[in-house]
Design goal:
Strand order of the largest sheet of chain A: 6-7-8-3-9-10
Structural class of chain B: alpha+beta
Radius of gyration of chain B: 34 Å
Number of helices of chain B: 11
Largest interface: A-B, 32 and 34 residues
Distance between the termini of chain B: 37 Å
Number of strands of chain A: 11
Largest sheet of chain B: 6 strands, mixed, barrel
Oligomer: heterodimer
Shape of chain A: globular
């Protein structure tokens, strides 16, 4: 059922047979159904995807097309109803809740449209937050300081979220997403609440992170200009991949369509 | 990196919980106040009641709860004890002091043609039972009498005075009065069963005793002595009537304990209300922080981590309330100790137990009350929480 990378005929065709073997996460014929009010909603109707290090993938599509569902599956926040999702070759459906949480912590960084910073914590503490329970306060503080400097907020360490601008908050959130050295950064409308200039700076930051830290970035967006910045754009419509434009497409429709 | 941070870094859940508690300060304080009231109620009622009980027990002890009284049993042929019986009793009770007495009713002539009944006790030496306040008791006090403080006050008697006493006459006969010289007046006593007039045992003429008093150092020893006597003498026949106040003490203890537990139970009702308040506060708090908890789950906090953080938070609310509550309860108990026991620091082990118990119950209630909100928050799927 689970093809080795590159085995999938469709994938090979579209990508010109150059599926990288160091993929972080790969999904094949992924279906996700929800129960809402007694009705079963098929949010994803058989989608294939693969994310390799330093990828920058933009997922676009109308609302209700399954973008968020896809992001949740990539973020190990949710499990596919059917199909095969593998994280570095491991079938994620076999993970217990605890394993899933641990893998999520090790592999994934999240950036949200509304930042979700904790208002009672300073910028520095917000960045430390994912590692607060690790009982390594010294290393965590060093790393968090370094990351805030990295995103250009070295002078805002002790500011509380309501003392920061939207762009600064999002940069704090990005620093937080990087504290555990993730392989993939999942960004849900990361520029949705920001003006164009601030958004540009966030996109520049993503580029730097890809180059310097080899982090893959997957973003769900409505903004065309974010999509333009990505190396790949995946358009989801009604739970299926409709078009993919780029040099190395790892997203496309499943074989059942 | 300050040392403070080095320490708090070891207990991150507490740091996080403290931050969250101080976030909705008024709400947290109200919830803690509810716990505080419960802790004060249990601590003050329980420990104050314990002080009251102790004071009453001390009093009972003063009144002779350390004594055992023995009189001839129903199955005994003679209605009195003789020297042999006394020696047997003495042997049975071991180290305790025994005083044998003979009680009789007598007529006391106040003045000519006016007399009243008095109870007289014949014994070897009144000093073995009571303290002497005035006068002296000579070794051989034949024809002398010792009177109680109350009797002396009532009839204006001082040592050296003469009183006229007569054995209670049979029906139709006149009382035959003889003079006795009062050699001593006893000190005032709280003791149970103290008589008015004490006469030398020789005056009975036959050295027979109707009662033996066994004096021990504690209620426990008195109980042991009574048990030993019953085992020794009351096997198949009831040759002794053994009477001890310890059974009354036991009854009193169980009554006061019952009342105390009942009142402390009422106090714990207020803790129940406090628990509802904590549960409500925590539910509001986790509902408000739904997204935040979703983010925590997303960035790698496990269900157990969330559960722990929220339980620590509930416990912290309880600890704040219990902390303030125990200080107030201590003040009340200090006052109760001062009133009942005469020393504010005279804590009985029971009152300490109530105080510790109040704190434990206070924090325990908070934990139990926080369990459901914490469980609910921990089990919410992050996907749902982050959907907004």
């Amino acid at each position: 059922m689970a093809p080795a990378p590159g085995d999938d005929g469709v994938t090979a065709d579209v990508t010109g047979g150059t599926v990288p073997t160091d993929e972080i996460i790969r999904g094949t014929d992924v279906v996700k159904e929800y129960e809402t009010g007694g009705q079963t909603v098929r949010a994803l109707k058989g989608v294939d995807f693969g994310i390799a290090p330093a990828d920058f993938v933009a997922v676009v599509g109308p609302s209700g097309s399954g973008k968020s569902t896809l992001l949740n599956l990539l973020g190990l926040l949710d499990v596919a109803t059917s199909g095969d999702v593998r994280l570095r070759g491991e079938d994620v459906s076999t993970f217990t809740d605890r394993e899933q949480t641990r893998k999520r912590k090790e592999t994934i960084g999240f950036v949200f449209q509304s930042f979700y910073l904790i208002p009672t914590l300073t910028a520095l503490e917000n960045v430390e937050m994912p590692r607060m329970l690790d009982r390594t306060p010294t290393q965590t503080r060093e790393r968090a300081t370094q990351l805030l400097e990295r995103v250009g907020l070295g002078d805002r360490l002790d500011h509380y979220p309501d003392e920061l601008s939207g762009g600064q908050k999002q940069r704090v959130a990005i620093a937080r997403s990087l504290i555990n050295d993730p392989d993939i950064l999942l960004a849900d409308e990361p520029t949705g609440n920001l003006d164009r200039d601030t958004g540009d700076r966030i996109l520049e930051l993503f580029d730097e992170l890809r180059t310097d830290e080899n982090v893959a970035v997957v973003t769900v967006t409505h903004d065309d200009y974010v999509a333009e910045a990505a190396d790949r754009v995946v358009t989801l419509i009604d739970g299926r991949v409709r078009e993919t434009e780029d040099r190395r497409a790892n997203f496309e429709e499943g074989p059942d369509t | 990196m300050s040392w403070l941070r080095a320490i708090t870094g070891r207990f991150p859940s507490i740091v996080i919980a403290r931050r969250n508690v101080s976030r909705a300060r008024t709400r947290s304080l109200l919830a803690a106040a509810a716990i505080m009231i419960g802790v004060v109620a249990i601590g003050a009622i329980g420990a104050g009641g314990a002080a009251f009980k102790q004071s009453q027990l001390d009093r009972v002890q003063e009144q002779g709860a350390t004594n055992v009284y023995v009189s001839p049993g129903l199955d005994r042929e003679e209605r009195h004890f003789d020297r042999t019986d006394l020696m047997q009793i003495d042997e049975t009770v071991g180290g305790a002091t025994i005083v044998a007495t003979e009680s009789r009713s007598m007529e006391y002539r106040i003045r000519f043609e006016q007399q009243r009944d008095v109870s007289a006790t014949y014994l070897d030496d009144p000093r073995r039972l009571y303290e002497v306040a005035a006068g002296e008791i000579p070794k051989n006090w034949r024809r002398s009498a010792v009177v109680s403080n109350e009797f002396a006050l009532r009839h204006g008697i001082e040592p050296g005075d003469r009183i006229m006493l007569a054995p209670e006459p049979d029906e139709g006969e006149d009382a035959v009065f003889s003079p006795y010289r009062v050699t001593a007046v006893l000190a005032e006593t709280q003791a149970f069963g103290a008589d008015e007039v004490y006469l030398p045992i020789e005056a009975t003429g036959d050295r027979q005793y109707s009662q033996v008093r066994i004096t021990t150092q504690s209620v426990g020893e008195a109980e042991a002595a009574a048990r030993a006597l019953r085992e020794e003498f009351n096997g198949r026949k009831d040759t002794l009537i053994v009477f001890e106040l310890t059974s009354l003490v036991r009854l009193f203890k169980s009554i006061v304990n019952g009342i105390n537990v009942f009142l402390a139970g009422l106090g714990s009702l207020s803790l129940l209300v406090a628990g509802v308040s904590i549960a409500n506060t925590m539910l509001m708090s986790v509902t408000k922080r739904r997204e935040e908890i979703g983010v925590l789950r997303a960035v790698g906090y496990s269900k157990a981590d969330i559960l722990r953080i929220l339980l620590v938070e509930a416990a912290l609310l309880g600890a704040i309330g219990a902390g303030i509550g125990i200080v107030l309860a201590l003040l009340v108990v200090l006052a109760a100790n001062a009133i009942f026991l005469g020393d504010p620091l005279a804590f009985t082990s029971e009152s300490l137990l109530y105080l510790v118990g109040a704190v434990v119950f206070g924090i325990g209630t908070s934990l139990v009350a926080g369990a459901y909100p914490a469980w609910r928050a921990a089990n919410e799927r992050p996907v749902e929480a982050l959907r907004g």
